[in-house]
Every structure is written in structure tokens, then in C-alpha cells.
Amino acid sequence: MTDITLLPQVEAFLRRRHTLFIDGGYVQSHSSQTLEVINPATDQVIAHVADADAADVDAAVESARRGFQQWSQVAPAVRGNVLLKLADLLERNREELAQIETCQSGKIIQVSRAFEVDQAAHFLRYYAGWATKISGQTLTPSLPSFAGERYTAFTLREPVGVVVGIVPWNFSTMIAIWKLASALVTGCSIIIKPSEFTPLTILRIAELAVDAGLPAGALNVLTGSGRVGQALVEHPGTDKVSFTGSVPTGIAVGRSAASAGLTRATLELGGKNSAGFLRDVDLDTAVNGIIEAGFLHSGQICAAAERFFAHRSQIEPLMARLSERLGKLHIGSPLDERTEFGPVTNRQHQRKLEGFFAKARAENNTIIHGGKPMDRPGCYVEPTVILANSLNDSLLNEETFGPIATFLPYDTEEELLALMNHTPYGLSASLWTNDLSKALRMVPAIHAGTVWVNMHTLLDPAVPFGGVKSSGIGREFGSAFIDDYTELKSVMIRY
Ligand code: NAD
Predict the structure, then answer these.
(1) Is residue 1 in some structural domain?
(2) Long-range CB pairs of 204-210, under 8 A, 24+ apart, other chains included
(3) CA 281/CA 321 separation, integer angstroms
(4) Which of 7, 145, 268, 374 is the 20 to 30 A CA-CA neighbour of 178?
(5) Pair (123, 234) in one structural domain
(6) Three-class DSSP category at 484
(7) Do 157 and 130 contact (CB within 8 A), yes or no?
């Protein structure tokens, strides 16, 4: 094993006594409770963070309200420049941030660098560009004049106020950046509640945001359990929640937001995404596609595919070739630059995945590859390929959020579409074919917020992203986020 050496600033950061980030700096929590942060590759406790309490929630909301008053008055071009500077600072501190992220999440270092830092900086710059382009419209009222009077009208786009950004553990930095960039560019302030499993990187980024020129209170970070997220959603001083996480928690958050005086809520939830391979795709292209769709970051990606459908004539050779490729993956320490496949992010998740292996066996599914935890320290499970018996099998219906690709054969393209749509979720899906004309005819029949053709999982800030059915409400990216982070005020004038 040849792990890279941790930078001295990473060692020093991990040794810090981590506190909350409120009003432009670190402050002690009112609570004496702390949470352990555990490196899933080694099982070692690498840091402790505060488990915020109700008084901390009040302090963060008061700070965010003051931050909103100030930040919403800052000129759009200046807001955009702050985001651009933050993107530069992410890149300048790339290795430090990537190493902190890998230590807390087990994400392989190459993925931490490429996605949690480089992609996050790319998203920040994209959002920064919107700062100077968000406006209302002038309108022509429709009613006739009664006595010669005239009417004109226009709309204003106003920031919604204090946003609560609740973040999951799989991409702790990039998802936090989506939320803070959407909020800050529209003139809102934001309180980020990171996952209890991965709270560290965003605490460091909050410091960088102040260096980039963000005023106190515009960004606060409250660490803690789900209870902290719930208290923020229910707080009368918050105006909107942007939640990314699992379907059951998302539904609870949506309910709490509605009960707390119809607080606006966007919910980016999980899924059970399908990938359908048409007969014309050659096996090597299909195997590369399956690795991209199902095994990047050990499958811990909301948009990853977990249900794979291949033509009956191809399914056996396809699974055999996939199994051969997975057998050659370099599995190891996420701090070793050669590693292609690392641990999952926490012990709880590893146990959940073991539960899925047991279900597959209990339902007589055929385990083609993997299907076990790995006999080594850390939260490792084998990359796994399963052949299901029927559409009702658990592994084709429940989100595993892990490196498990479950297959079922189809005979006709009509059947393929029915199989792909047979799920209560609809975050993403992909079709793989050389026949683009056929793909374009099939795309409208697929029930998902994003349909990829000959690709899967790649998110682009210019392309809206979000779920249909139980996978969520609202869209991030593109111009679509503007509706969620601003109120539309109508102004009508008689003259
Ligand atoms: P989770 O739902 O367990 O937790 C997400 C966040 O919600 C955490 O910060 C948690 O502390 C907080 N939370 C828990 N209970 C809460 C409550 N009652 N009120 C408010 N906040 C609460 O999800 P997870 O296990 O961290 O992440 C994995 C899930 O996230 C998967 O289902 C995955 O599909 C989904 N996900 C979706 C997207 C997307 O963009 N659609 C992206 C990434 C992950």
C-alpha cells in the first residue's frame, strides 16, 4: 500500500477542536455533545464535531437573518465576484480539501480531487455567471380600460430569504456548493447542515468563503444529527429548505416544512435508476457503461443506475465480461492513487449493504460476482453483480446506494420500457444504443427527471437536475433553480 502523505495543514485541521461556523467565524456550541467522525477506510476516529442544540440553531438563524439583510443589498456583480473568488480558493487549496474529504468519506482521492474540488469550482463559476442575469419582466395587463386609464406591470425577482441547506454524506462538498451557490447568487443567506458522517470539508470551505469576501452571516454551518436539520426546518426564522437525501427523510422534511407555515421546500431524493441496453450495443461499450453507471464512488451516487436491463440473448456474456472487469479493479486504500474502488462511507451503510446481499440470497437471486463484505479493516464490500428472477425481487426495487448492479433480461423494446418504468422513483435513467433515432423515440416514454443516452451519472451545471415521482420536487442547475430561490413579486401601475 502506498498512501499519499497527508499535508501538514490537513493533519492540523483534523486535530482542531471543531466548533460551529456562525456569523463569519468559529464559535463554541452551547451543547457539550459531540459526534465522532470516523475514517471508513481505517475505522479510526479522525475528529469530533459539535452536535448543535436548540440555542445554536437560534444563534445561526439570527446570524443568517442579519446576513440576509446585508447580502441581499450587495450588487449582483459583486455577489458573482465573491463566488468566483471562492472557486479560485477551492482550486488553490485543492489537495488539502480533497485529502480532508477522502479521510472523512473514504472517497478515493482521485474522485475527491476531480468531483469534490474541481467540479465544485466549475459549478461555482457557472452559478456566478447567473448573478448579473436574474431579472423580472415587463408585462402588458390584459383588461380593457374603462375610462381612458392605462395600466402597466412588471415583476421583480426577490431572494426568498434564509435558506436551510441539508446535505447527505455521499458528496458532502459538491452538494453543499450547489446549495450555497444557488442561495448566495440570488441574494439569500444560507445555513448548511452537513451529514453527521461527513461534516469536516464544508467547515473549512466556510473559512475560505470569508476569505473570498462573503460577509458574516451569509453562510453558517451547523454540524449535528438529523435533529439539527429538523429544528432548522421548523424554525420560524427560516424561509426555504433545500434538502438532498433519502426518500423517507425527504418526505419528513417536506411535511415539517409545510407545517412550519408553508416553508418552501425543494427535495432532491434517492432513486432506483434504470439503465437499458439495446441489442446493437457491443459488449465492451456496455461493460464500460455499467462501470460508469453503477460503480463510480462505489455506487453511492443518487443518480447511479442500480437496475440493469439487457436483451435476453446478451445478458449472460455481458454479466460474464462485467464480472471479469470487476475482478481486475484495484481495490484498496482511498489515499492510494492507484485505487479504483474504495470503502463505502460508514459502517451503518456497510451493514445495510450486507442486508441486501442476504435478501438476494433469500430470494434465490444468482450472485454472479461479489456479494460479501471484504475481509479487511474498514467498511469495504465487494463490487457485486446479481441476476434477479423477477421484477418483484427486492434488489430491483429498493435503493441500495451501493456497488450492486442487478440485472434482468428483456425480449422486446416495449417490454424494456415497461421494466424501466416499473418503479415508484424517477431520478435518472439511461439508454445505450447506436440507433439515435430509436433512442429519441424512446426517451419521451421514460419516466425520469434526467434521461441519458450512451452516458450515465455525469451532471452538468447547465442542465437541470431533479426527480419525478418519489424522487423529489424541484430542479437544481440551469436557470431552473432561480424559481426556487426567488419570489416573483408583481407590480401593477395605473396611469
Ligand atoms: P439521509 O436522508 O439519511 O440524510 C440526509 C441529511 O438529512 C443528513 O444531513 C441528515 O442529518 C439529515 N436529516 C436526517 N433526519 C432529518 C430530519 N428529520 N429533518 C431534517 N434533516 C434530517 O440521507 P443520507 O443517508 O445522508 O444520503 C443518502 C441518500 O441521499 C440516498 O437515498 C441518495 O439517493 C440521496 N441523495 C440524493 C441526491 C439527489 O440529488 N437527488 C444526491 C445525493 C444523495
Answers:
(1) no
(2) 204/13, 204/93, 204/96, 204/97, 204/100, 205/86, 205/90, 205/97, 205/173, 205/176, 205/177, 206/21, 207/21, 208/86, 208/89, 208/90, 208/93, 209/82, 209/86, 209/180, 210/24, 210/25
(3) 14
(4) 7
(5) yes
(6) helix
(7) no
Residue-range definition of the domain harbouring residue 415: 273-461
Site to substitute for ligand 1 among 167, 175, 177, 195, most atoms within 8 A of C-beta: 195
What would the grid cell of residue 393 be?
425481487
- Tens of pLDDT, residue by residue over 112-168, are 999 999 999 999 999 999 999 999 999 999 999 999 999 999 999 999 999 999 999
> Which residues share a beta bridge with 157?
488
- Copy the grid coordinates of residue 422: 416499473
Cα–Cα distance, 342 to 307 (Å, whole number): 22
Q: What is the pLDDT of residue 1?
A: 64
Kind and range of the H or E run holding 87 = helix 76-92
Q: Give the model's pLDDT for residue 223.
A: 98
Count CB neighbours of 472 within 10 A: 29
> Residue holding cell 485543492?
94
What does each C-alpha distance from 387 to 1, 206, 316, 322, 373 come to in angstroms?
34, 45, 9, 12, 19
CA 354 to chain centre: 24
Strand, coil or helix: 365: coil
Q: Is residue 114 part of a domain?
A: yes
123 three-state secondary structure: helix
Residues 119 and 156 in one domain: yes
Nearest ligand 1 atom to alpha carbon 472 = 41
Residue 430 has pLDDT above 70, yes or no: yes
Nearest CA to ligand 1 atom 31: 246
Task: Look at ligand 1, atom 22, and give the residue with the nearest C-alpha.
Answer: 226
Single-letter code of the amino acid located at 427? L
Strand ranges in 312-427 using DSSP code E only, listed in sequence order: 366-369, 384-387, 404-410, 425-426
Q: Tell whether ligand 1 has an atom less than 6 A from the beta carbon of residue 244.
A: yes
> Distances from the Cα of 476 to the Cαs of 144, 381, 449, 467, in angstroms?
39, 32, 11, 10
Mutating to test ligand 1, I would choose from 193, 244, 348, 428 the residue with most ligand atoms within 8 A of its C-beta, which is 244
pTM over 0.90: yes
Domain count, the chain: 2
Per-residue pLDDT band for 248 (boundaries 50, 70, 90) equals very high
Closest approach atom of ligand 1 to CA 250? 2
